[in-house]
């Protein structure tokens, strides 16, 4: 099958070389008409800077429809429901690949289309399940294939440039065999998938965490060092979350991972310094992490290259779970296109490369945290849904995935409420709360933030309701309870009351004592909450594996049902944004701290 627009050079050459064939092809064929696949309004803040250079290379990702994703989803909910007989019966890599593999007709149709543009099998990268194809092609060819025009777009506020289009088309007979193609309409750029670090301040490395008399809290029955109100350490987290004295094993097949992106790198020397400061048992054996490079991600160990996000994540996740096997994944990816120096390639976004890698991994870590996200509305819905389906596949493998809920309260990712825009990207300019992605995906565990002990919600804790994903049944009762307590008419039109609600859980989020490039810092953000929660999930998995039980896998259905009583309900605080006071932390689930923070000893009893 050959579909070419009449202006195509290739068609012209076919005419001259093969007049008879060309005659046949030149017959007007309805199948060869292009149909619009996706069209968007250019998001606010982006303007056209100029035409895209024709030879600019694009790494194009083509998503083929996953033929049986609904079956996979059914399996996932069965094996994640603690009251189901199949609870914990995680699927094998091959079983999942079979369920998400595209229909052979889609493969054939798309292969034919690619080869009609001179793209050979050897030029095509395929994911393990065959549901993603990757090709590197110059703009001029992509424009022909997608019957579109790319431009260099400039983001006025940040000065970033990217090469994108606002619509693309496909030949009619390909339309249903392709779910999405990027980068086309994705304006949420790699760089703007920012880490959710709220604040960072340098502290004197000589000052050790203070040792004031501990505080007893009669409500929880816990004793916590007074210093934990102003400096969070591994000791503080074990005290606040009731895990003092629990020793995990290195020998039961347990594992934990941190996903790093955007050239933000973890540093081993910093981890050693942190261990010496807070985890003596790890320091005594010079414990370190395994490094895994994803599509060429680097591992520089120069102190000047130490990344705040990666150091925070590795130090707390691995510090809490030592001696559980730990891995830092570094996914390659360059900042956006720079027109002046002619960046040779326009990178996509991080999740799909990382997901392809994890899903093809024989043994992905059982508890994983990532602290990267962006406003949901900057990610095209088609892309968000497909990445979310990838997170579901990881859950079905028995992996628990934690993500930060965001640092803008009910507002956008902008930590400063005064400059939050909260205006929709769809051309209508409506004022609306701005949920974050991937927190809004129902197949991840979104972690919000708390401070102090006794704990209360931190004001920047990202929370709210997705505009892309409808509410999953596992949180229906909890969220309905919350909504029914809202004063009538509250924030009418500002949020989608039927959407997936964020966050699921929470953990401490400020004053984390971290070492970066040899210096001690205090860091805050839900960037700290997510790896903390992942560390406790690793401890829960330890308890299960020691008893011969499978890993916890996708957590949410368990948390909202059988394990609900294992959380400390946070009832003080709120998350302002968009010129409002945001939502209140309340009794039961709320859109600031979710179900609450972990009580490890209670949770352990509930899951073992
Ligand atoms: C933290 O500060 C609050 C007051 O803001 C106080 O009631 C509480 O006892 C302090 N907690 C600790 C652990 O010192
Ligand atoms: C840990 O590293 C230090 C410094 O490199 C070295 O002196 C020490 O022997 C190591 N300890 C162990 C247990 O490997
Ligand atoms: C929305 O805002 C943009 C940018 O300020 C403006 O160009 C556009 O006309 C606005 N649209 C509507 C419907 O108000
Ligand atoms: C939050 O609580 C305050 C104080 O009780 C109340 O005035 C306000 O209406 C509540 N806001 C929401 C959104 O529930």
TrEMBL record:
**Gene Ontology molecular-function annotations:** metal ion binding; serine-type endopeptidase activity; tripeptidyl-peptidase activity
The UniProt record gives the binding positions of Ca(2+) as 569-570, 588, 590
Cofactor(s) needed:
Ca(2+)
Gene Ontology BP terms: proteolysis
Q: Name one Pfam family in it.
A: Pro-kuma_activ
* Leader peptide range in chain numbering: 1-26
Q: Which UniProt keywords apply?
A: Calcium, Glycoprotein, Hydrolase, Metal-binding, Protease, Secreted, Serine protease, Signal, Virulence, Zymogen
Q: Where is the Peptidase S53 domain?
A: 231-608
Got a GO cellular component term for this one?
A: extracellular region
Q: What is its EC number?
A: 3.4.14.10
Name of the protein this chain belongs to? tripeptidyl-peptidase II
Source lineage: Eukaryota, Fungi, Dikarya, Basidiomycota, Agaricomycotina
């Amino acid at each position: 099958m050959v579909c070419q627009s009449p202006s195509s050079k290739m068609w012209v050459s076919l005419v001259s070389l093969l007049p008879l064939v060309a005659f046949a092809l030149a017959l007007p064929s309805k199948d060869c008409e292009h149909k619009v696949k996706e069209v968007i309004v250019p998001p606010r803040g982006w303007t056209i800077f100029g035409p895209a250079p024709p030879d600019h290379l694009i790494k194009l990702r083509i998503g083929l429809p996953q033929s049986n994703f609904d079956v996979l989803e059914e399996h996932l909910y069965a094996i994640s429901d603690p009251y189901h007989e199949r609870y914990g019966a995680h699927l094998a890599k091959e079983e999942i690949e079979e369920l998400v593999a595209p229909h052979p007709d889609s493969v054939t149709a798309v292969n034919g289309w690619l080869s009609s543009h001179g793209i050979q099998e050897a030029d095509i990268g395929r994911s393990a399940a065959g549901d993603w194809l990757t090709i590197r092609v110059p703009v001029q060819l992509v424009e022909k294939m997608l019957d579109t025009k790319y431009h260099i777009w400039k983001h006025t506020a940040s000065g970033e440039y990217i090469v994108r289009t606002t619509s693309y088309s496909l030949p009619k007979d390909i339309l249903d065999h392709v779910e999405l193609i990027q980068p086309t309409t994705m304006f949420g750029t790699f760089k703007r998938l920012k880490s959710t670090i709220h604040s960072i301040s340098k502290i004197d490395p000589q000052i050790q965490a203070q040792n004031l008399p501990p505080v007893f809290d009669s409500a929880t029955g816990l004793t916590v060092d007074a210093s934990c109100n102003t400096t969070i350490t591994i000791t503080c987290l074990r005290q606040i979350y009731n895990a003092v004295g629990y020793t995990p094993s290195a020998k039961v097949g347990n594992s934990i991972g941190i996903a790093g992106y955007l050239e933000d790198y973890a540093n081993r020397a910093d981890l050693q310094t942190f261990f010496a400061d807070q985890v003596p048992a790890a320091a005594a054996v010079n414990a370190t992490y395994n490094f895994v490079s994803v599509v060429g991600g680097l591992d520089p160990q120069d102190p000047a290259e130490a990344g705040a996000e990666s150091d925070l994540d590795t130090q707390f996740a691995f510090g809490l779970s030592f001696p559980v096997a730990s891995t830092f994944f570094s996914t390659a990816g360059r900042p956006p296109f720079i027109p002046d120096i002619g960046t040779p390639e326009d990178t996509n976004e991080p999740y799909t490369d990382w997901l392809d890698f994890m899903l093809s991994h024989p043994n992905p870590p059982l508890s994983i945290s990532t602290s990267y996200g962006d406003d949901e509305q900057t990610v095209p819905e088609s892309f968000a849904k497909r990445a979310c389906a990838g997170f579901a596949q990881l859950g079905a493998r028995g992996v628990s995935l934690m993500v930060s809920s965001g640092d803008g309260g009910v507002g956008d990712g902008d930590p400063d409420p005064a400059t939050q825009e909260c205006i929709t990207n769809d051309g209508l300019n409506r004022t609306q709360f701005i949920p974050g992605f991937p927190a809004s995906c129902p197949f991840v565990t979104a972690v919000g933030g708390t401070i102090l002990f006794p704990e209360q919600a931190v004001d920047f804790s990202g929370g709210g309701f997705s505009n892309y994903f409808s509410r999953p049944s596992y949180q229906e009762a909890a969220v309905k309870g919350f909504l029914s307590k809202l004063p009538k008419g509250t924030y009418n039109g500002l949020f989608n009351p039927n959407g997936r609600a964020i966050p699921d859980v929470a953990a401490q989020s400020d004053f984390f004592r971290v070492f970066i490039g040899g210096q001690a810092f205090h860091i805050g953000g839900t960037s700290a909450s997510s790896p903390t929660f992942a560390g406790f999930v690793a401890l829960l998995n330890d308890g299960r594996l020691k008893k011969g039980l499978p890993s916890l896998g996708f957590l949410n259905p368990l948390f909202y049902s059988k394990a609900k009583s294992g959380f400390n309900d946070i009832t003080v605080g709120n998350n302002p944004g968009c010129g409002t006071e945001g939502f209140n932390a309340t009794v039961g689930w709320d859109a600031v701290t979710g179900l609450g923070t972990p009580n490890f000893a209670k949770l352990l009893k509930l899951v073992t």
